[in-house]
Specification:
With 228 residues, this protein is an alpha/beta fold. 33% of the residues lie in helices and 25% in strands. The protein has helices spanning 41-48, 74-78, 96-107, 111-124, 140-152, 170-185, 197-203; strands at residues 2-10, 16-25, 30-35, 56-61, 64-65, 81-84, 158-162, 189-193, 206-211, 214-216.
Length: 228
């Protein structure tokens, strides 16, 4: 599903976010991405979503070498990747329904199909009764679940999440992670960047750890100290 082959990413000013990174994530895996602040986690996710392009190396997502992809193809590619952010990035002047519907509207689906898919996504995250609510009236955990519903409404084969529980308490964090596990159980590949080592330990999935833009113990389950 995801392959990085000797990928490096440099930013203007000389900052090297990733250095010769090689890794592979199988279709249907659920994997955590961890490392210190500035280790390169967000950059790695941005490369997968084509929000950034590699300076060197090859990034393959769902069988496509995406680095040289033409700009006009990017919107079609992104329908294959659901992206969840820590700060939700919800439109505060739109209802929950309208926020979740946005990817479907952009993709040109019919009004009837949009209604069906949005309500199915909201049902999956337990917010069907909130479709007419405004985001500001929701709790932090509910807002994050709206973000997840928006990410999965297109039924993408891949979900990536950047610190999705960073602003939530431990109980809500576990609830959100269990939600990701439910999507993974039906075949969705899930990659989550997280600093929450205790939560990662509880869940027991494979961990990819970064340190200063390089890989550390990519094939081991989380065992504690060595990967912190």
């Amino acid at each position: 599903m995801i392959t990085f082959d000797r990928v490096s990413k440099s930013y203007p000013g000389g900052h090297q976010a990733l250095s010769g990174l090689s890794l592979h994530i199988e279709p249907g895996e659920m994997v955590f991405l961890t490392g210190h602040s500035g280790a390169g986690k967000s950059t790695l996710l941005k490369l997968i979503a084509l929000l950034e392009r590699p300076t060197r190396g090859t990034v393959i997502v769902n069988g496509q070498n995406i680095g040289p992809m033409k700009r006009r193809r990017i919107p079609y590619f992104r329908r294959q990747v659901g992206v969840i952010f820590q700060d939700h990035k919800l439109l505060t002047d739109r209802t929950v329904f309208d926020n979740v519907a946005l990817p479907l509207i952009i993709a040109g689906h019919s009004h009837r199909e949009i209604g069906r898919r949005v309500r199915a996504a909201l049902d999956q995250v337990g917010l069907l009764d909130k479709e007419r609510a405004m985001p500001v009236t929701l709790s932090g955990g509910e807002q994050q679940r709206v973000g997840i519903a928006r990410a999965v409404v297109n039924k993408p084969p891949l979900l990536i999440a950047d610190e999705p529980t960073g602003n939530l308490d431990p109980e809500l964090s576990l609830e959100i992670m269990r939600l990701f596990e439910r999507f993974n159980q039906v075949g969705v590949t899930v990659l989550i960047a997280s600093h929450d080592h205790e939560l990662i330990r509880q869940l027991g999935h494979r961990v990819i750890s970064l340190r200063h833009g390089r890989l550390v113990a990519p094939h081991l389950a989380y065992t504690g100290g060595a990967q912190q």
